[in-house]
Amino acid sequence: MHLDHSLPLPAPAVGADAHRPGGARRALRVGLGGPVGSGKTATVAALCRVLRDELSLAVVTNDIYTREDAEFLLREAVLPPERITAVETGACPHTAIRDDISANLEAVEDLEDAVGPLDLVLVESGGDNLTATFSRGLVDAQIFVIDVAGGDDIPRKGGPGVTTADLLVVNKTDLAPYVGSDLARMAADAKAARAELPVVLQSLRSEEGVRDVADWIRARVAAWTA
Amino acid sequence: MSRAALLVLADGRFPAGGHAHSGGAEEAVRTGRITDAASLESFCRGRLHTAGLVAAALAAAAALGCDPAALDAAADARTPSPALRTAARRLGRQLMRAARATWPGLELDAVAREFPRGVHQPVVLGLAARAAGLGAADAAHCAVYESVGGPATATVRLLSLDPFDATAVLARLAPEMDRTADTAVSAAHRVRKGGPDELPAASAPLLEIGAEAHAARPVRLFAS
Ligand SMILES: Nc1nc2c(ncn2[C@@H]2O[C@H](COP(=O)(O)OP(=O)(O)OP(=O)(O)O)[C@@H](O)[C@H]2O)c(=O)[nH]1
Ligand SMILES: [Mg+2]
């Protein structure tokens, strides 16, 4: 039997498929979620600046009712404009990353078609609540970003984002003295809630900036392409 | 024919991208044409008998096995607004993905291969119904229900309308939905012999104009 390979195959129907229509491995997809204003876009921007010379990457933003996140990234010129796409979410950011991922899958695939091959696609969720997590059909790994100013009891309160994300980032540690947040307690509560899963405390205003998160991503990309 | 399969396809939670679209309700709210349950009902009634009827006939014809490419072209001809054509193809592509994952089959694969950028959503809806073992009337009912269910859900979010009132609007429209679906199925049977010109061409100019205005707005909650 001879199989006819001359027909182009349609894109695989299932989003989690690890391969492109041509058979090549697709990009690693990492989701960034977390409450409004915790620093998701700032983290994405910092990651782009650190990683863009070593990886081929692109970004999908999920803005709730504007294109501000995409426009911020464009203004900051962290990536060429054709590598940044905004998805509209119809007032329900968690639906677009968890229950009905169609528009995001399409955005990710269109980016790979247009500017690929890509090593990494970052998908930023619109700011949401502590239960918002990404579907495994959309991303391969997820980062949950909270900040010290949102209250130092958030790691203790837990919720799916805090307890199950592949990486928990506690951002804006520089603000801890001003808002009376106890960093040691946040770190201990996070560890208790997450067992072996990693936690990074960072300040994007500090010298180290996004370094630890970038290292974590490098390791994920290395494992993905291995 | 499985009644349960129809419920799966018609469920508002079927993951095919519809939740990000308001069916023109956002623009109607913004311009003061939908302000309460009564005006939501008028809006939905208008949409049902125009865009809803056309969508249902397209879906029914596709479910009967009419040529998707010809139906897609007919849908284009019945959709003056470029923004609406883009939205319909995008939703069609998203529904295609969901349908192929849900009811895998060669026919859907072939259309996905032929139209990588998507065909109009109602055409895919008809093909999905076929793949699910459903008939033309099922496809038409899905389409008419979607044509009013989308705006009703969106209005609950946009106006903080009482969700019971919005659902009651849908219930009151149910007899009209049934009649519209019947009309659409009859047209679809004529399409089999007479071609796509037999499809209804009812249109609502304000929906088309509103869609263009909406697409140009820098701040909006819904994609269309
Ligand atoms: N002091 C301080 N400010 C930060 C830090 N990271 C981000 N910010 C600021 O926090 C504000 C919100 O950051 P964004 O990155 O827009 O937050 P976001 O999570 O993307 O917000 P939404 O997308 O609206 O949910 C901005 O003014 C950032 O400059 C940090 O580490 N320290
Ligand atoms: Mg943001």
Describe the structure in your own words.
- The complex is a heterodimer of chains A (226) and B (224).
- The N terminus of chain A is likely disordered.
- Chain A is an alpha/beta fold and 226 residues long.
- Chain A has a seven-stranded parallel sheet, sandwiched between helices.
- The two termini of chain A are 33 Å apart.
- Chain A is 36% helix and 17% strand.
- Chain B is an all-alpha fold and 224 residues long.
- Chain B has a single domain, classed as Orthogonal Bundle (Urease accessory protein UreF).
- Chain B is built from ten helices and no strands.
- Chain B is globular and about 45 Å long.
- Classes of the chains: A alpha/beta (226), B mainly alpha (224).
- Chains A and B meet through helix 3 and helix 4 of A and helix 5, helix 6 and helix 8 of B.
- Guanosine-5'-triphosphate binds next to helix 1 of chain A.
Summarize this, please?
The complex is a heterodimer of chains A (226) and B (224). Chain A is an alpha/beta fold.
Write out key terms for the chains shown.
heterodimer, A: 226 residues, alpha/beta, Rossmann fold, seven-stranded parallel sheet, 17% strand, globular, B: 224 residues, mainly alpha, Urease accessory protein UreF, 71% helix, binds guanosine-5'-triphosphate, binds magnesium ion, Urease accessory protein UreF (chain B), chaperone (chain B), nickel insertion (chain B), UreF_sf (chain B)
Blueprint of the fold:
The complex is a heterodimer of chains A (226) and B (224).
Chain A: E1 28-33, H1 40-51, E2 57-63, H2 68-75, E3 84-88, H3 93-99, H4 102-115, E4 120-124, E5 141-147, H5 154-157, H6 160-164, E6 167-171, H7 176-179, H8 183-194, E7 199-201, H9 211-225
Parallel strand pairs in A: 1-4, 1-5, 2-3, 2-4, 5-6, 6-7
Chain B: H1 3-10, H2 25-30, H3 37-63, H4 68-77, H5 82-102, H6 106-114, H7 121-131, H8 136-159, H9 163-194, H10 205-215
The structure holds guanosine-5'-triphosphate and magnesium ion.
| First and last CA, distance of chain B | 33 Å
Number of domains of chain B: 1
Give the strand content of chain B: under 5%
CATH hierarchy, class of chain B: Mainly Alpha
Average of per-residue pLDDT values of chain B? 96
Termini separation of chain A comes to 33 Å
CATH architecture verdict of chain B: Orthogonal Bundle
Oligomer: heterodimer
Count of helical stretches of chain A: 9
Described by strand count, sense and barrel closure, the largest sheet of chain A is: 7 strands, parallel
Amount of helix of chain A: 25-40%
Q: What integer value in Å does the Rg of chain A equal?
A: 18 Å
Question: How confident is the prediction overall: mean pLDDT of chain A?
Answer: 89
Number of strand segments of chain B = 0
- CATH hierarchy class name of chain A: Alpha Beta
Family (chain A): Belongs to the SIMIBI class G3E GTPase family. UreG subfamily.
Main location (chain A): cytoplasm
InterPro entries (chain A): CobW/HypB/UreG_nucleotide-bd, P-loop_NTPase, UreG
Keywords (chain A): Chaperone, Cytoplasm, GTP-binding, Nickel insertion, Nucleotide-binding
